[in-house]
Amino acid sequence: MNTAFPVSLRGAKRRGNLFNMILSKSFFNRDAQIVARALLGKVLRVKYRRMWLSAQIIETEAYYLHEKGSHASLGFTEKRKALFMKPGTIYMYYARGGDSLNVSCRGGGNAVLIKSGIPYGDSEKMIKTMQMLNPCNGRLRAPEKLCSGQTLLCKSLHLKVPDWDQQQFDAEKFYIEDVGYQTKQIIQTTRLGIPEGRDEHLEFRFVDKKFTKYCTKMPVVLQ
Q: How far apart are CA 134 and CA 75, in angstroms?
């Protein structure tokens, strides 16, 4: 199968001590915008049955307790509990009927939404599995479109709200890895889907410029 991914995404290899590459709690114990930027280029690793599914993060959004676009601004509830838990806690919720992945950051109620990604590596078996998990109208979805949106990302990686909301990352099941990729240019713009009057003007969305054609389909503006 020719996935037509950029060269930098092909032939991914595990290097060194895995536990030195998994993002630590301290990584998330920072301002949400700093974390949102730093997550670009990191790789999500999810164990599905007997294989690992992987996606490189190419788009994120930052959210804060004291701005109207965030879930936390609506107040503490049991469903939003993860937002107020220690940095690095997984917060998942349903968005338009699909699962959505977030991680808590420094300061109660602050978090980063993993908006989109792209399959990492060139394993045909992995790509085929992700396509089966996330078909498009009964057909196989193009590999580069498997994770281009927050719910598509979760569906392709088999990440479910009941399994991971309020949980911690687990080196045996689900974690985020630093593979040494350096984002050369970041596009910063307004977040998507924020209702009018709820701080929709805030530029808290970050995209790796190299992969704009694979991210969520909305206009982006250079800084």
A: 33
